[in-house]
Design goal:
Chain B: InterPro entries: Bact_Polyamine_Transport (IPR051789), MetI-like (IPR000515), MetI-like_sf (IPR035906). The complex is a heterodimer. By secondary structure, chain A is α+β, with helices and mostly antiparallel strands. Chain A has two domains: 8-236, Rossmann fold; 240-338, Nucleic acid-binding proteins (OB fold (Dihydrolipoamide Acetyltransferase, E2P), Beta Barrel), CATH 2.40.50.140. Chain A is 26% helix and 31% strand. Chain A has helices spanning 46-54, 96-105, 111-124, 140-152, 170-187, 198-204, 222-227, 232-237, 246-253, and strands spanning 8-17, 20-30, 35-39, 61-66, 69-70, 81-84, 158-162, 190-195, 207-212, 215-220, 242-244, 259-261, 267-269, 278-290, 294-301, 306-312, 326-332, 337-338. In chain A, helix 2 (96-105) packs parallel to helix 4 (140-152) and helix 3 (111-124) packs across helix 4. The radius of gyration of chain A is 24 Å and the shape is elongated. Chain B is mainly alpha-helical. The two termini of chain B are 26 Å apart. Classes of the chains: A alpha+beta, B mainly alpha.
Amino acid sequence: MTETQPAIRLTALTKEFGAVTAVDHVDLEIAAGEFFSMLGPSGSGKTTVLRLIAGFEQPTGGTVELFGQDVTKRAPFDRDVNTVFQDYALFPHMSVLDNVAYGLRVRGLGRKERNERALRALASVRLEQMAGRKPSQLSGGQRQRVALARATVVQPKVLLLDEPLGALDLKLREQMQVELKEIQRELGITFIFVTHDQEEALTLSDRIAVFNDGRIEQLGTPAELYERPRSRFVADFVGTSNLFDVERSRTILGRDGHHSVRPEKMTVSRGGLDQPGVVDVPGTVVEAIYLGSGVRLVVDLDDGTRVSVLEQNDRDRMHDDERGDRVVVSWHEDDVVPLGIEALPGISG
Amino acid sequence: MRLSRLSRTTLGIVTGVILLVVYVPLFVVLVNSFSTSTSLTWPPPGFTLEWWGRAFQSAGAMEAVATSVQIAIIATIISLALGTLISLALQRFEFFGREAISLLVILPIALPGIITGIALNNFFRTIMGVPLSIWTVVIAHATFCIVTVFNNVIARLRRQGTNLEEASADLGAGVWTTFRLVTFPQLRSALLAGGLLAFALSFDEIIVTTFTAGSGVTTLPIFILNNMFRPNQAPIVSVIAVVLVLVSIIPIYIAQRLSGSEAERR
């Protein structure tokens, strides 16, 4: 049965806080074993959806199903999902071992067995030698791993992670991303990962739901979201995009509707490429930013449109562009992504 | 931070004067408990240990201590139970009239004791028809002792947030298990602080006690007041006062050490 049922099915899920609609008729299916991310800016409803799945909030409308079972009305302790909290929420008065063993303890396991299993869980995050410490004696990354061990030791069917890497510094975050992915593969359970960091979501996920204003703006694989965003919001939020509104699309691209072109799909040359299927537009360099692996050029096209171009720092880059240089920006017709006719509500600028 | 010499000297003198005003009278009481004078004359004409011996043999004094301790302990236990419950209700649940109840809980500590005393006296005797006894004192004390527990616990709950409780529920613990294993341990030091304050409040209360104590119920403050101006009893009162000072240092010392070690752990 569990083979065919999705791990999570949300149907018309809605949550209102007073006059504010935090989650607005969300329909979503997440497959078993999937690493699924909910991506969006703060206030987009992604964390509320997570809390509705965990049972900390009761929906105003709609249902939450877990492997085909309606759990909408069930209390958090009665659901087979576990959460890794943003601030870890480790119990400060308990040792690391007691924290990890907590879920087993409230299930009535004897001390010996629960400590054995907790130690094994701690070993899987390489913290068994910290078992006797208090959470306050651990570093941020260690606390994060304890929280992970505590949530996974009870073998949930679905693990919910609420911006678990948000409090860590960059290096540690990248290291933890790799570890998370490994742990998910080992356990084979469904991970639902909430983040506002689009790079993190792209790196980790099998699929991503981009949230905006309490609704899912787009759902797809990282490649789909990045290569074929369907709205201005997604094009802008996932990676960086050069957005062409209706008027500029008409004048520059000769197309109807909104469009976007990724900076790395554009190239800069002195005379243009002059190839079939390639658009050449002259402009002036406003800024050249050296990034190490590449150079980001900000170019004002002659009609005033400002675009950002990402050039790889490879052997083909023969010339150094400087502020004020006259250049030609080129991109292939196939790399122009249509974003629809309507001016979609989204973040502007 | 560095201060000028003048302000340092001035602040030092002011601090010294204030400490003197607080502690010299206590010292006088200590000296008087060894004085050969029975009417607290100063300076003491001579020194003796007689009053110390007499005080510990005084049945009245010992009984008063026992009564006060008994009342304070029971009032504190009631306050701890009710204060914790009302804090949890007001901090963790939404319901109609929440703000009003919060105000009503705190009000008794602001009410003048004389009013509480008269009101409860009336209530017990004429409306309830209950004879005044040690239990009427306990109930009267609990009405305002709850406030210290409530204030401490609700501040802790507010600071704590609901994260830990959510984590506990998430890991499969029901409401009661969560309270026992997570909420209560987090409240322990708040309960201790609130409980010690409640005990102290009850122990030296005299106004409400006067109005609600049955005949024959003599708490320590009432005993002291009754004996203060009786011939030959003043030095015994001094002895009791000194003992009380020593006794009250202990819980404060414990409370400070506990909060100190807690601060280290954080």
